[in-house]
Design a protein that fits this description.
The chain has 149 residues and is mostly helical. It has one domain. Helices cover 72% and strands 0% of the residues. The chain contains seven helices and no strands. The protein is globular and about 45 Å long. Mean pLDDT is 84; it is low at 139-145.
Length: 149
């Protein structure tokens, strides 16, 4: 069974204002890629799997999970916009670079918010620490950091 996406195109359009039009299929495929790579690297696979299970089984989130999930959704929208702008044709290079930098800064802020949400909740923190993910220092220099060890 394929993973459930945590946001859809409507959520993306509602939360991202940019004058460039994005292709629908590119939006969904970019969301899927970011969710399976960037997001899992931040929140860990056990926390990710917990959300997948609860969404698929229609289980209500705790308050802490709800707060984290809101941050996850915004992160996915912002990071998707950043990636799509970065990959867009160079028609308006200066405008594109400025917008991409703004989205990058927002995604870093949202990443920190997700880490904070996990660290503030004992259950989420224990779940994040239960993973067997191992990252080398070089990978973490590029991707971010492993925050729950």
């Amino acid at each position: 069974m394929a993973d459930t996406l945590f946001i859809n195109e409507d959520f993306f359009k509602k939360n991202i204002s940019h004058r460039q039009t994005f292709n629908s299929s590119q939006v969904i495929s970019t969301i899927r890629l970011i969710q399976k790579t960037n997001l899992i690297s931040i929140i860990t696979l056990p926390v990710y799997d917990n959300f997948q299970t609860k969404i698929n089984d229609v289980v209500i989130f705790s308050d802490a999970e709800s707060s984290l999930f809101n941050s996850i959704q915004l992160f996915l929208a912002v990071k998707t916009a950043e990636e799509m702008l970065y990959a867009a044709p160079n028609d308006e290079r200066d405008n594109k670079d400025g917008a991409s930098l703004a989205y990058h800064n927002k995604s870093v802020l949202l990443e920190a918010r997700m880490v904070r949400d996990i660290n503030r909740d004992a259950t989420l923190l224990a779940l994040a620490q239960s993973g067997a993910d191992e990252f080398d220092d070089e990978e973490m220099d590029v991707q971010g950091g492993f925050y729950f060890g």
